[in-house]
Specification:
- The complex is a heterodimer.
- Chain A is an all-alpha fold.
- Chain A contains 13 helices and no strands.
- By secondary structure, chain B is mostly helical.
- Chain B has 2 domains: about 40 residues, no CATH class; about 200 residues, Orthogonal Bundle (MetI-like fold).
- Chain B is built from 11 helices and 2 strands.
- Chain B has a two-stranded antiparallel ribbon.
- In chain B, a hairpin with a 2-residue loop joins strand 1 and strand 2.
- Chain B is extended.
- Chain B starts with a strand and ends with a helix.
- The chains are: A mainly alpha, B mainly alpha.
- The interface between A and B is large, with 70 and 66 residues.
């Protein structure tokens, strides 16, 4: 029990009184922004001249020029191929690595090397990894595929490990108690618990690979990115606009498909439901009790 | 719904999914397999390049060694600091720009479907353009340099920050806000004392998470001329100075790891 006086002292003061530290932090932040802006040579003049440029730039972007559509479709289909293969390879490789990295199922001498692989795969941006692969396997789609495979291993490996580490061990023990060998424990004790989350991040990764596969071309690793960069450097801005519209359309279609796959596998929706756009929310409850 | 019983010759067969669900799943599997097969058949792989890949990798590492550490104090250090400035300023700018858009996207705060839709459209378009493309655009407008990089980072992050912030606002418990409204609190007080305490943890974790991502992203923006360590990397690559490339890669790795440690520490302190 608190003394009445102490109680009054603690609770009579302003309940919304502010700490000193946030204010100091705010002032420090403002000082940092001023310092950093001076370092980066950011000034109002530059912004103003930039805005004048912007008007000219945007007027040259429009109307988009789709005359070289053959180049466009070739680049886009290559990007799509890179994304599909990188996601497949990435998932196939990330599953065993992610499983090995799970500390609740594996001894430390297995999990630490696996965790190291995952961290290494995640630490560089896919475009930088693509530079290395362009040197190793030459210009072209293969370099892009391998670079995005590495990125997928990093992402899926990490999330798969976290998903496995969060499972309930009761079911695993129950399967073990029947005398099941290790593969059966995985198939009946572990995988059913992580399957819906796995679908979630596999579709997310396909989405993310699709986005990045349109970019790795900037360093020569195949896909539409090379065409985009070349068009930029030649000041071919109307073609740039056409490429950007195509890329954004592709990414949006990818997002719609990813949502459809998630609805079918996680919410047990059918293709008919998706066409009729109904029942997705109601069905979530059913998956919880199966 | 999930289980369907059927009789076939007197025996019951229990199925987890009905035929429409099974058909849907089958179609997805079929499309995935078809996509993989078509991709493997049509992707361009040059066998000669693939054959000498091991040799090239050995050659790559031989050229990278010894790492040119002597070059670090000269230009790499400044470029690295510039990268961190780009990431930080870009994140701050994106938060400033994303706050109003995120609020407008939250259906419980702004009960006008039209405004919500426009705000969400802005957020989606920001996210669907890759930061490298934003960088190309801003390099076209402002010329090469860190300003283009900062704006690229900011515009790419608006969608991410705004979307997550809008979702956090929509998930906020209506009770405290109703209580404030009942007490006659004006709009500003409802925001600062009703919504802000509820979304504060989400806000900080979004900001920190995005800063961490932006440190990685700002390292590559220089490849298209938008400032930072990427420009040093680009010139080293163009001159085939592989031992300098190795130094830059190690520097990027170090910064990425330090940023992750910093984020973990700050998150532990304030969340």
């Amino acid at each position: 029990m608190t003394e009445p006086a102490a109680f009054a002292k603690a609770y009579s003061s302003d309940p919304f009184r502010r700490d000193v530290w946030p204010r100091i932090a705010a002032i420090a932040l403002v000082l940092y922004v001023i310092y950093a802006c001076s370092q980066l040579d950011v000034s109002w003049d530059r912004v103003q001249t930039g805005l004048q440029n912007a008007a000219r730039f945007f007027s040259r972007l429009f109307p988009p020029n789709f005359k070289r559509w053959d180049l466009l479709t070739k680049g886009l289909s290559e990007s799509l191929e890179i994304a599909v293969l990188a996601s497949t390879l990435g998932i196939v490789l990330a599953l065993p690595i992610g499983l090995c990295a799970a500390r609740n199922l594996m001894p430390p001498w297995v999990s630490w090397p696996a965790r190291l692989i995952v961290v290494m795969a995640r630490s560089f941006h896919p475009v930088i990894v693509a530079i290395i692969f362009v040197k190793a396997v030459g210009f072209g789609a293969l370099a892009g595929t391998l670079a995005l495979t590495v990125a997928s291993i990093g992402f899926i490996g990490k999330l798969f490990t976290e998903a496995i580490e969060e499972i309930s061990l009761k079911q695993v023990e129950a399967v073990r108690a029947t005398g099941a060998p290790f593969p059966s424990v995985l198939a009946y004790g572990v995988l059913p618990q992580v399957f819906s989350r796995f679908i979630g991040f596999a579709t997310y990764q396909l989405d993310s690979n699709l986005r990045n596969s349109t970019m790795v071309g900037i360093v020569g690793a195949g896909g539409i990115g090379g065409t985009l960069f070349a068009a930029f450097q030649r000041f071919d801005y109307d073609f740039v606009c056409a490429i950007l519209i195509a890329i954004i359309t592709l990414i949006m279609i990818g997002e719609v498909l990813a949502t459809a796959v998630r609805a079918i596998f996680i919410e047990n929706a059918t293709l008919f439901d998706l066409v009729r756009r109904r029942g997705t929310m109601r069905r979530v409850r059913h998956t919880e009790d199966d | 719904m999930a289980t369907v019983a059927r009789t076939a010759g007197g025996d019951r067969i229990w199925r987890r999914f009905n035929s429409a669900q099974r058909l849907s799943r089958f179609v997805v599997y079929l499309v995935i397999v078809a996509a993989i097969v078509v991709s493997i058949q049509t992707i361009e792989v040059i066998p000669e390049f693939l054959a000498d890949a091991p040799e090239q990798v050995v050659d790559l590492f031989a050229r990278m060694w010894p790492v040119d550490f002597a070059h670090y104090p000269g230009s790499v250090h400044d470029a690295l600091v510039e990268t961190i400035h780009i990431a930080t300023l870009g994140t701050l700018l994106s938060i400033v720009l994303a706050l109003p858009i995120g609020v407008l996207a939250a259906r419980n705060l702004v009960p006008f479907a039209g405004i919500n839709f426009v705000a969400k459209l802005l957020l989606v378009s920001s996210r669907s353009v890759n930061s490298l493309v934003w960088a190309l655009l801003f390099v076209g407008i402002f010329g090469p340099g860190a300003l283009a990089g900062t704006l690229a980072i900011a515009f790419r992050s608006i969608g991410f920050v705004g979307k997550l912030l809008g979702e956090a606002l929509e998930e906020a418990n209506a009770g405290p806000i109703e209580a404030l409204a009942a007490a006659g609190a004006p709009w500003t007080s409802r925001m600062t004392f009703g919504y802000w305490p509820q979304v504060k943890p989400a806000f900080w974790s979004i900001a920190l998470f995005r800063w961490d991502i932006n440190v990685r992203e700002s390292a590559v923006l220089g490849l298209v001329g938008a400032g930072g360590i990427g420009m040093a990397l680009d010139s080293a690559l163009n001159l085939f100075q592989w031992n300098r490339v190795a130094l830059i890669l190690i520097a990027i790795l170090a910064v990425v790891i330090l940023a992750e440690i910093a984020v973990t520490q700050v998150r532990r302190r304030i969340l």
